[in-house]
């Protein structure tokens, strides 16, 4: 009963249901232990691209969808903003799917009056030079790469070929990917600024972030494949990134300690402040 966390709004994206990488169990745990007035699904919720290639669907993926539908039925205002991986849903923009509103982008007004543009973000891939943000994973693989490089060049030497630095090559790639992230963030923030808004909330690049860029607040809610993050709005309009890499039971105290108590009080305690 008293173990739900209450927020004014929650943003999640890049869930990629329909892929083995989707951390549906963690998302389900998150959805079970949180409540909100506004729930925004900021794109790439169902990975239609992956499903077309290879059908992958687990019970937990159904459960996530059921949970969201149930929240919508129970009064949470749910908005789904399709991303590039679930672009098939873009033909339904402006329509309702049950109680879920499908939109291309929305403007969210926070409790403190601040206005945020909410969109998935793939629209800015074209603006940002054609870099492959996926190369970011190269960063993780760097150590492995060094080892590979060693064996690779031993093989090359045996074949009478010169040294070629695989790690150097990948490092260059990663640097380009990092540039991409910065360029993306700046492009999205610039759009919010052009529209005279206080900030922007997006997903797409799987990198949770909250920082001021040229006078507007850039927020990215991250993903549920790797980082397991959501963006939340507290009752006073403040935004926070929540990381859910442990199940609720394992981190209940840490979560409670993270937020000021009157705002972060378990639901149903009847504090009408
Ligand atoms: Mn995307």
TrEMBL record:
Q: Which terms in the Gene Ontology molecular function aspect does this entry carry?
A: metal ion binding; UDP-2,3-diacylglucosamine hydrolase activity
Q: Which UniProt keywords apply?
A: Cell inner membrane, Cell membrane, Manganese, Membrane, Metal-binding
**Biological source species:** Chitinibacter bivalviorum
State the protein's name.
UDP-2,3-diacylglucosamine diphosphatase
Query: Which GO terms of the cellular component aspect does the record hold?
Result: membrane
The family database entries (Gene3D superfamilies) matched by this protein are listed as:
3.60.21.10
Q: Does the keyword Calcium apply?
A: no
Could you tell me which Pfam families the record lists for this protein?
Answer: Metallophos (PF00149)
Q: Which SUPFAM superfamilies match?
A: Metallo-dependent phosphatases
Q: Does the keyword Metal-binding apply?
A: yes
């Amino acid at each position: 009963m008293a173990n739900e966390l209450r927020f004014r709004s929650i943003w999640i994206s890049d869930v990629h249901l329909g892929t083995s990488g989707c951390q549906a169990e963690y998302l389900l745990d998150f959805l079970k232990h949180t409540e909100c007035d506004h729930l925004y699904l900021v794109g790439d919720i169902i990975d239609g691209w992956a499903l077309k290639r290879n059908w992958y669907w687990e019970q937990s993926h159904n459960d996530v969808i059921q949970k969201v539908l149930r929240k919508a039925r129970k009064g949470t205002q749910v908005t789904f903003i399709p991303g590039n991986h679930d672009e098939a849903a873009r033909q339904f923009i402006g329509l309702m799917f049950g109680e879920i509103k499908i939109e291309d982008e929305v403007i969210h007004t926070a409790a403190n009056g601040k206005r945020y543009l909410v969109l998935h973000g793939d629209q800015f891939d074209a603006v940002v030079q054609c870099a492959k943000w996926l190369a970011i994973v190269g960063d993780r693989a760097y150590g492995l790469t060094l080892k590979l490089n060693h064996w690779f060049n031993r093989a090359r030497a045996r074949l009478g070929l010169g040294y070629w630095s695989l790690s150097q090559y990948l490092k260059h790639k990663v640097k380009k990917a990092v540039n991409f992230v910065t360029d993306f963030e700046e492009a999205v923030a610039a759009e919010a600024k052009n529209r005279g808004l206080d900030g922007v909330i997006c997903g797409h690049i799987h990198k949770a972030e909250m920082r001021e860029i040229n006078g507007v607040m850039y927020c990215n809610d991250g993903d549920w494949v790797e980082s397991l993050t959501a963006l939340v709005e507290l009752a006073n309009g403040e935004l926070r990134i929540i990381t859910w890499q442990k199940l609720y039971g394992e981190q209940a105290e840490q979560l409670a300690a993270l937020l000021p108590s009157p705002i972060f009080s378990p639901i149903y305690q009847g504090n009408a402040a």
